[in-house]
Specification:
7-stranded mixed beta sheet; alpha+beta; 170 residues; 5 helices; binds coenzyme A
């Protein structure tokens, strides 16, 4: 069963305004431990040992880059951007996550707005991403930002209806 896909037909958006002390920047080697902590907290199902972390994983040939939101209390969030191979005008959002200690500040939304700027500077014009049915805070973030569902497999209409139903009750 495939993940749910969302599409945003434009990369135009307001510039992000981060809470005081939070800075969006490109991942650097010194961020590796902080990035690992964010990824482990956000994606428990994956192994974030050295072989799966940092430039080795995130320096995808079509990569826009791996970015972090840094704070005085360490790395708060991350997002990675790729150019989608099947549609070179589409920026693909990969592994976006906010450490639980920093949630509730819309850092996910802000990191996406920053990533849109990166996508635009690489000549891209649209964005897509894949997610899981149960990631409701993420899906709410995407919908609020103007992403819309793109059906990529039979049966996804019903899954989307269930997601929308769940969001309407939270
Ligand atoms: C998705 C994620 C990045 C959002 O973190 P954040 O930017 O701090 O988001 P917030 O906590 O500010 O919440 C974002 C929105 O979701 C809503 N939300 C929070 N918990 C929710 C829940 N359990 N169900 C539904 N909506 C929820 C918030 O009210 C907010 O809505 P609003 O923008 O209308 O006010 C974060 O939850 C995360 O890292 N999750 C784990 C990793 C993940 O799922 N990544 C996405 C992979 S596709």
């Amino acid at each position: 069963m495939r993940q749910l896909r969302l599409h945003r037909a434009s990369l135009e958006a307001d510039a992000p305004t981060y809470p005081a002390g939070y800075i969006f920047r490109r991942f650097a080697e010194a961020d590796a431990d902080g990035l690992r902590q964010v990824l482990e907290a956000c994606f428990e199902e994956s192994d974030w040992g050295d072989a799966n972390l940092g430039p080795q994983t995130f320096a995808h040939p079509k990569g826009i880059g791996c970015f972090v939101v840094a704070s005085p209390r360490g790395i708060a969030a991350t997002v990675t951007g790729l150019v989608w191979p099947d549609a070179p005008h589409e920026g693909y959002v990969h592994y976006i996550g906010v450490h639980p200690d920093h949630r509730g500040l819309h850092l996910g939304r802000l990191a996406l707005l920053s990533l849109f700027q990166q996508f635009r500077s690489h000549g891209l014009s649209e964005s897509i991403l894949d997610t899981d049915d149960w990631r409701l805070p993420a899906i709410r973030t995407y919908l609020n930002l103007g992403y819309v569902p793109r059906i990529v497999e039979e049966g996804q209409e019903g899954r989307w209806a269930a997601v929308m139903d769940a969001l309407s009750t939270t």
